[in-house]
Specification:
Blueprint (H helix, E strand, L loop, with lengths): L1 E2 L10 E6 L6 E2 L9 E6 L7 H16 L5 E4 L7 H9 L3 E4 L1
Parallel strand pairs: 1-3, 2-4, 5-6
């Protein structure tokens, strides 16, 4: 079981949480998301780096759709998204790894 209680959801307007097939339970303090739009995206396929690929797709889509003043923060334990974060920054998006 994974806990996201250390993440202060109230610091963000919108949080998209990606869950893979092995993520059966996720702990979230519901009081901390009261003023945050929380979207849970379930990825049913299990393959090497599959979540990174899906997150990359979402980041690219939102990079094109949202206002240029929107700041993205990516929380990931791995380094598989570093190239995407670097490329989005080069293209003008404000992206941080949290």
């Amino acid at each position: 079981m994974h806990s996201l209680n250390a993440l202060k959801f109230s610091n963000y307007e919108w949080v998209i949480l990606f869950c893979g097939p092995q993520n059966k339970k996720v702990e979230i303090d519901l009081a901390s998301v009261a003023s945050t739009k929380l979207e849970i995206t379930r990825i049913d396929k299990s393959a090497k780096d599959n979540l990174d690929f899906d997150l990359s797709l979402y980041l690219a889509r939102y990079h094109e759709l949202v206002d240029e003043n929107v700041e993205f923060v990516v929380f990931s334990n791995g380094s598989g998204l570093d190239g995407v974060v670097d490329q989005m920054t080069t293209l003008g998006s404000e992206v941080q790894k949290g």
